[in-house]
Design the sequence.
């Protein structure tokens, strides 16, 4: 059929373009100077730090340790990336949004048990959960309590399709439950909050898109994402609530890396002031001292996932699809509004 | 649809075809079904009937059935117009009918959001509703019925219609007694394809549906959330249900088609 043929050609053209682009990206990353002993490291990471990594790799290649090292880079949704590595995708360095994505690799025997024994506990970048608002904050939304008022629409991704979206809900939960001490109060809050969520996109980036596309009064997001949006000219303001959750993104080298010395050198470089400054430029809070020129407001009450019991406990208790407490709330909301 | 006999093909050809089909389609499908039974039939049943999975499945199958019906009617009308009517731009229209196939489905979702989303220039906002899901499915399945009916219409002998008219048949009578019976097999196979494609759709629905569990979350997105929660067995179980529904639909439509072509 003639038109089917056209479709096939279109598909072939698209596939070729993708291939060419992919190859192009690859050779961009490979900026080595052709000397002997060239090493190629595979970096597998979640999507948001992509721009930062591109700059960091360029800077690393200018250092003596990084001189002959080139990189293949893969960026995508944190959970997808982690599962890909668990299922055999070659990786020398992994960086994810959530600690559980590293834990999966520890269980699979790909990352060493003591990956988090370093001075920062395996954490490479930090951020905080913030409330994004329309320009000028017309509804005056500043606190977690403001978000559960009637007539306020809050955009946050679905915590069951976006692992990282769990940070958002846990931030509000942590505030209302006094860092987990009063679980009932925290859950009541989540129930009220989710009632005000008209859309649950499958990822943080899509939620940002939905919000900048005109839907909702508030967006639960991370400080670095809000900064990213502003840097890209999106109409968005944000406030840091007085009490919020510290986001910690973990990094690790793999056990089965073919170039363990080079991978370790790159990991070490990621913690250098130089690399951390690049992360800071991209909106992440640095994890080492000595990064200057940025102003990171410190919320009076900043708590961590460990205050709430740690990811293992929280994941089973809250986000198990069948028995989790958040699943229960979603179920109740779904049934209640079905009528 | 006429079935050719094996006699024409060589044994080598048959071997290659079977091997290829096995590697690309049959074994992966079998693997999903096998995976879904990992934790026993009780677990399978529980995975499929959790309230969110069940809501996603019923929404998906219901919306897909509706979309298939719309396609059955509208696809036939479009094919008719493309074959029988002469108007400027017909060739262009004929070419862009396949665009929903060529477009990455996530782009389809973006396109629909731009036109029927919160900032709709038409003032029609279907985003984050079940209507939005149906719209996305209609978009991605549009070509199926058109492309199955079109060649049949092209080959249809107009002399039959002229004969009927000369014997005094009214246009509608001619359509119902002469044209429709010839078209029905193609219409049904296009509809079946549209239905099975719709139940599998992910990309275009994930944006416009808003992914609200129990309300707008489709089965493919629910499967994704099971995977995200490291419940691969549950994901495989829901996938298996979709597979069975697709298979039943294809078989049912095939039976209907034979019945239709016998009557034709």
Sequence:
């Amino acid at each position: 059929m003639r038109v089917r043929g056209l479709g096939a050609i279109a598909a072939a053209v698209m596939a070729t373009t993708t291939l060419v682009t992919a190859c192009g990206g690859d050779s961009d990353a490979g900026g080595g100077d052709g000397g002997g002993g060239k090493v190629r490291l595979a970096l597998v990471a979640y999507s948001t730090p992509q721009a930062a990594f591109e700059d960091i790799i360029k800077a690393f290649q200018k250092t003596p340790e990084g001189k002959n090292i080139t990189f293949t880079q893969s960026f995508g949704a944190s959970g997808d990336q982690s599962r890909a590595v668990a299922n055999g995708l070659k990786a020398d360095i992994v960086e994810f949004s959530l600690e559980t994505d590293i834990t999966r690799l520890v269980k699979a025997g790909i990352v060493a048990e003591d990956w988090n024994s370093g001075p920062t506990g395996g954490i490479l970048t930090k951020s905080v959960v913030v409330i994004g608002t329309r320009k000028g904050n017309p509804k005056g939304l500043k606190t977690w309590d403001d978000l559960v008022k009637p007539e306020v629409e809050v955009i946050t991704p679905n915590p069951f399709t976006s692992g990282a979206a769990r940070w958002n809900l846990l931030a509000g939960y942590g505030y209302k439950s006094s860092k987990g001490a009063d679980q009932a109060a925290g859950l009541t809050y989540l129930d009220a909050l989710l009632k005000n969520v008209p859309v649950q996109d499958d990822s943080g980036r899509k939620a940002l898109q939905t919000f900048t596309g005109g839907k909702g009064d508030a967006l639960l997001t991370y400080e670095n994402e809000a900064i990213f949006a502003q840097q890209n000219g999106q109409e968005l303001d944000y406030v840091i609530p007085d009490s919020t959750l510290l986001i910690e993104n973990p990094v690790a080298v793999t056990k089965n890396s073919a170039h363990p010395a080079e991978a370790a050198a790159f990991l070490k470089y990621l913690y250098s002031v130089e690399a951390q400054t690049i992360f800071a430029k991209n909106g992440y809070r640095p994890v080492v001292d000595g990064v200057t020129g940025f102003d990171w407001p410190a919320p009076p009450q900043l708590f961590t996932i460990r205050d709430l019991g740690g990811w293992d406990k929280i994941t089973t208790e809250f986000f198990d699809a069948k028995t989790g407490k958040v699943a229960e709330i979603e179920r109740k909301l779904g049934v209640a509004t079905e009528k | 649809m006429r079935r050719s006999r094996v006699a024409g093909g060589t044994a080598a050809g048959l071997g290659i075809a079977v091997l290829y089909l096995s590697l690309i389609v049959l074994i992966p499908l079998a693997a999903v079904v096998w995976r879904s039974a990992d934790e026993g039939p009780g677990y399978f049943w529980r995975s499929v009937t959790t309230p969110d999975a069940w809501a996603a499945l019923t929404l998906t199958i219901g919306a897909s059935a509706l979309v298939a019906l719309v396609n059955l009617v509208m696809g036939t009308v479009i094919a008719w117009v493309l074959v029988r009517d002469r108007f400027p731009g017909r060739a262009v229209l004929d070419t862009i009918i396949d665009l929903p196939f060529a477009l990455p489905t996530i782009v389809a979702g973006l396109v629909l959001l731009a036109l029927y989303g919160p900032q709709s220039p038409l003032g029609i906002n279907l985003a984050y509703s079940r209507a939005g899901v149906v719209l996305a499915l209609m978009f991605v399945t549009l070509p199926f019925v058109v492309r199955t009916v079109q060649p049949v219409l092209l080959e249809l002998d107009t002399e039959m219609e002229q004969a009927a008219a000369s014997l005094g048949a009214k246009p509608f009578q001619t359509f119902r007694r002469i044209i429709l019976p010839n078209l029905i097999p193609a219409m049904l196979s296009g509809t079946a394809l549209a239905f099975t494609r719709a139940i599998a759709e992910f990309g275009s629905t994930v944006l416009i549906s808003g992914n609200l569990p129990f309300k707008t979350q489709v089965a493919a997105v629910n499967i994704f959330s099971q995977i995200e929660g490291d419940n691969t067995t549950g994901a495989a179980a829901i996938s298996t249900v979709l597979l069975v529904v697709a298979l039943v639909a294809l078989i049912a439509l095939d039976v209907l088609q034979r019945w239709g072509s016998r009557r034709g």
Q: What stands out?
A: Residues 51-84 of chain B form the longest helix (34 residues). The radius of gyration of chain B is 21 Å.
